[in-house]
Amino acid sequence: MPLSEYEQRVLAEMEKHLFEQDPELASALREDATPRKDKKRVVLGVTIAICGFGLLIAGMATQQIWLGMLAFLVMLAGALTAILAPTVMGAAGGANFTQQHGRQQGGGFMDTMQKRWESRE
Question: Where are the domains of the chain?
Answer without folding.
Answer: 1-34+90-121, 36-86
